Amino acid sequence: MGWNEQWAASALCKQGVPDELFVRGAEQHKAKVICQACPVRTECLAEALDNGMEWGVWGGLTERERRAILRKRPNVTSWRNLLETAMVEHERTIAAEEAVS
Fold first, then answer.
1. Does the N terminus or the C terminus of the chain have fewer Cβ atoms within 10 A?
2. What is the reported pTM?
3. Measured between alpha carbons, how far is 43 from 27 in angstroms, rounded to an integer?
4. Are 47 and 7 a contacting pair, CB within 8 Å?
């Protein structure tokens, strides 16, 4: 599968009303549901973390959740590199497990 450079074009939220992702309170839980099955959730999250997106739900996380991640990992200089590497490793693990089966 790999990293999708053109991730925004493949985002599930693109099919809906963008304002639905920029809500507060309990409405954020509804917005997060849109992200659950999105094929580019990781790319979206990396974009938000690398660019300090302050508002809205990005990659399935609220602004509060993203701030918590940034506080826990202050030394990360590129969330894209970190998440892309994790994605590649995960895909290798899955492929190796399938090859054994």
1. C
2. 0.87
3. 23
4. yes
